[in-house]
Amino acid sequence: MAGRIVLLLACLFTLPYAQADLSAQKRELIQALFPKATVIEDKRSDFPVYPVYQLQELLGYAYESVDLSRLQGFAGKPISMLIGLDTRGRFTGVTVLKHHEPVFLHGLGEAPLFEFVDQYAGHSLREQIIVDTSNSGRSGRDTQGNIVHFDGVSKATVSVLIINDTVLSSALKVARNKLEGFTQAPPTRARPDFFQALGWQALVERGYLGHWKISAEAVEQALGRPLADYPHAPQPEPGEPFIELYFGYINAPMVGRNLLGDEGYRRLISKAGDNAQILAVMSRGAFSHLSEDFVPASTPDRLGMVQNNLSVTLRDLNMFDQAIGFRADGMPAFGRETLFRIGGNAGFNPGASATLKLNIELARNHLMVDRTTLDIPVAFHPDLFETVEVAPLPEKTRQPVWVGLWHQRWWQISLLVLGLVVLTVFFTRQKTLRRHPKLVHRFRWGFLFFTLFFIGFYAQGQLSVVNIYTLLLAVWDGFTLDVFLLDPILFILWTYTFITLFIWGRGLFCGWLCPFGALQEIAAWLGEKLKFRQIRIPERWHRRLILLKYPILLGLVGSAFCSLTLAERLAEVEPFKTSITLLFVRYWPFVAYAVGLLVIGMFIHKFYCRYLCPLGAGLAVLGRLRLFNWLERVELCGNPCQHCKNACGINAIRKDGRVDYDECIQCLECVVILRDEDACVDKRLEQKKRAKQANILATDAG
């Protein structure tokens, strides 16, 4: 007893010295992560963690995420978090220290961010954490296996996925370095030269394919109830298993070439990538390893994998086609066949033992659901593998976050690319199409609605000046493309806009692909229909006001290098977040500002675009490098004809007839007028001249 008292007094006297480099605020935050802590040591010099003790017992480690993971957030800066991990690999909590995510700072508020990170407390690295971004209703539900669904944040998908990747990858580094039971077996890989032509039965008998069968009785024992208690449960026939599974490591030529054939094997590896690890899973019986509502190219909820007490991600490759399919000799028929990409933060060692987790959910009624998880041992024949001398770090080999995002949004990407192809064809064929003014007008309005409702409201593809200074900061701090690939819609739009700037100038984006610009077009049309008085700014004032957006741009970019927080606040000069991202559901001053700009646009055509938009200013600067002045002009344009200038709502045509490409949104109105035999003065004079010549010829002939 006396020894314990002496030890306690020693801890109390040494505590201030042990925490000398800890600020009071950080000590308080770590204490909140470990409420029982009596000693919090300094950050270790060999590995950046703070050991936390209760007397002499190690409770775990606290660490700052930026010391172990520098994954950039949506604003181009890492999200700094303080994370607690106990000795069993469980999260004691996550605290956000600093971030620059615009959607949380100046949009949704920080409460949803804090609620999201609060979900980690109590969960383990041994669980497979899936952030729900599909509004499927499965958020926050634990299936009693190794799969845990976290509630994502609507309109902040990229940010929460970055946070999840940062938390898991950094925690894995701490676990591998400091915690017992998380060390890896010697790394292995498939032997590329090990192959013999074998049929299905030989592959199974030699252990190259795994085989597992479970009876209905075993499932009833695991559930504690007979299957008859579940009205919608699959009922196997007498002698039929509840489920029978076969699985194999496709990367091993002995397995992949025999199952897929040489051509199918080469095609699959080529499509999936040389670094992809692929697991084939086939099932038959009353129950399947995939649920009825399983979405191809997603993560299965019935099947998971664990290796070395860490969750391993399985994601459907969805690559079966005419060339890629199972065709081994003697292969039986299966109910479901799947090719999974194996990966995740923990990586995967194919030569080491692992466990497949089969999650079974059966409903007794509409209120009560019973769940159980069956463990399926995975240990392939050692002849398939060879030892690798140096194991790459998991964060170097795992699939980047953006790859999964592109897979999830494949149909949005496809529709956007199709729309951009159509728009490109329309612009390249404009000399032919402008002869049909009704067609041009209908196409323009149709595309504006596509831009507003699909690109803007649904796909959240509103480009912003924030993206410009994020790029500049990334170049300044060390450029990486990964942060820009996190949002496929924005990446594709920026790539297309950047390329077309050098062909047609800034007008293609501003006039056709900007959702807020489309909203302003609709506001202007509504103002005309309501017979609001349309105000035209006098020429001399117009020429001065269009310069206003350039100092706004310079101020925003300059402030980003001084204070990113200040730049994010100043970026609210753009109403895009309020109107397009948040659909006007925001604190009233922001809504009043955005609505006010639209109301002004009902009287002054596209007021914001013309005079205030810093994004338009940045695009106009780059647009000066365009290759073509492609809008056709004729001799009478501006001298004396002013018809196109008067018809140009954005006032991008000068009095002398020249087009001001820095301001032009390329609505093609002037191009249509120029080809209109009744509207264009030049065409009308040509008609009169031809008619006069025809009369002279007719008179001479008479």
Q: Helix share of residues? A: 40-55%
The total count of strands amounts to: 17
**Strand-residue fraction?**
15-25%
Question: N- to C-terminal separation?
Answer: 135 Å
How would a crystallographer describe the biggest sheet? 8 strands, antiparallel
Poorly predicted regions are 4-20, 135-145
Radius of gyration: 32 Å
Q: Indicate the mean pLDDT.
A: 82
**What is the approximate shape?**
globular
Overview of this protein structure:
The protein has 28 helices and 17 strands. The chain is α+β, with helices and mostly antiparallel strands and 702 residues long. The longest helix is centred in the first third of the chain and has 22 residues.
List keywords for this structure.
single chain, about 700 residues, alpha+beta, 8-stranded antiparallel beta sheet, 5-stranded antiparallel beta sheet, 17 strands, globular
Question: What topology emerges from the helices and strands here?
Answer:
Blueprint lengths: L1 H17 L5 H10 L5 E2 L9 E5 L2 E8 L15 E7 L4 E8 L3 H4 L5 H7 L10 E5 L14 E5 L5 H22 L9 E3 L9 H6 L4 E5 L1 H8 L19 E7 L3 H20 L4 E8 L18 E5 L2 E7 L19 E8 L10 E10 L5 E10 L6 E3 L6 H4 L3 H8 L1 H19 L1 H4 L3 H22 L6 H13 L4 H4 L2 H14 L5 H7 L1 H15 L9 H7 L3 H14 L1 H7 L5 H6 L6 H14 L5 H5 L2 H10 L19 H5 L21 H7 L5 H21 L1
Helix pairs in contact: 11-16, 13-18, 14-20, 16-17, 20-21, 20-25
Write a brief caption for the model.
This protein is an alpha+beta fold and 702 residues long.
